[in-house]
Specification:
By secondary structure, this protein is of the alpha/beta class. The protein contains ten helices and twelve strands. A six-stranded mixed β-sheet has the order 2-1-3-5-6-4. Strands 9-8-7-10-11-12 form a six-stranded parallel β-sheet, sandwiched between helices. Strand 8, helix 6 and strand 9 form a beta-alpha-beta unit.
């Protein structure tokens, strides 16, 4: 049976009651019940003393346009965008910043002052934040997935100086579409359909990134790489799973059992969230410590 996450309200002590002046922020996606974004953002809003609240809203693909328009119509102050809407929503905004346009993916909506939304992307800087310049020149990454977050990962690989990315996904059509859209700026991409054996590539990989939903929600018992595949990686390889709940995911648990360095998606969550809050509130500093503490506490209080 899939785990249901419960995040008790006592993890957040907000100084303001919900009243007629309370402003709304939201995250939209499908699935969304696993999201720790409300815990993180509401902790920040409480610390900042803002009478705002942040909600998680499940939005199906066929309802995305209506949801985006509706949130603008009711004066929502900002929206986070998660799986599977990061690419589609780029076509529903009135303006888009250069990086989000380059990536073809939007994870943050900011009111444009004209009844519409300005789209931006804070994922790539959030992904990059916990990584240091630990990779050798000409390093190789194995990136799993083809969704919106993968575009941010590819941008980060470019920033880190990677020369080669092995891109693995279930759909060759999606792999080819992604390469056509980002190939002119991304590191050299080699496409690997999911059924392709990885034995010849894994010993060359310096960084593995899971950009798929495997490991979260209804897929939390699954891993995008088997223990046998992980064992083929060099001993100095880093395994980075953008999934942050459960913590650790099966991928990171098995990688750690082999002595491989691991990074989960929690720091990425905090950093991209803080960047979004700066855009929504106009404030220069965010309470990262309180945000992180709230998320850690919520993770400890998860119930089966």
């Amino acid at each position: 049976m899939a785990r249901t996450n419960h995040y008790p309200s006592k993890t957040i002590n907000h100084p303001s009651p919900i009243d007629g002046r309370t402003a709304l922020l939201a995250v939209i996606g499908n699935p969304i019940s696993h999201s720790l974004s409300p815990v993180m953002h509401n902790a920040a809003l409480a610390q900042l003393g803002l009478n705002w609240r942040y909600l998680a809203l499940k939005v199906a693909a066929e309802d995305l346009s209506a949801a985006v328009q509706g949130l603008a119509a009711i004066g929502c102050r900002g929206v986070s965008v998660t799986i599977p809407h990061k690419e589609t929503i780029a076509n529903l905004v009135s303006s888009i910043d250069p990086i989000a346009k380059q990536l073809g993916a939007v994870n943050c909506l900011v009111p444009d002052g004209k009844g519409g939304w300005h789209g931006t992307n804070t994922d790539w800087s959030g992904f990059l934040a916990p990584l240091q310049a630990r990779f050798p020149p000409g390093a190789t990454a194995l990136v799993l997935g083809t969704g919106g977050v993968v575009r941010a990962v590819l941008r980060s690989c470019l920033e880190l100086g990677f020369k080669r990315v092995l891109l693995r996904g279930r759909s060759i059509e999606k792999l080819e579409h992604l390469k056509n859209e980002v190939g002119h700026w991304a590191p050299a991409l080699e496409l690997l359909p999911w059924e392709t054996p990885l034995q010849q590539w894994l010993p060359q990989v310096d960084l593995v990134v899971n950009g798929t939903p495997l490991g979260m929600g209804e897929w939390q018992q699954q891993s995008p790489l088997s223990l046998e595949q992980l064992a083929l990686l060099p001993g100095n390889a880093l395994i980075y799973d953008v999934v942050y709940t459960p913590r650790p995911t099966r991928l990171l648990k098995e990688a750690a059992s082999l002595g491989l360095a691991c990074q989960d998606g929690l720091e990425m969550l905090l950093q991209q969230g803080a960047a979004a809050l700066k855009l929504w509130t106009g404030l220069p500093q965010m309470p990262l410590k309180q945000m992180g503490n709230a998320v850690e506490q919520a993770l400890k209080q998860q119930k089966p």
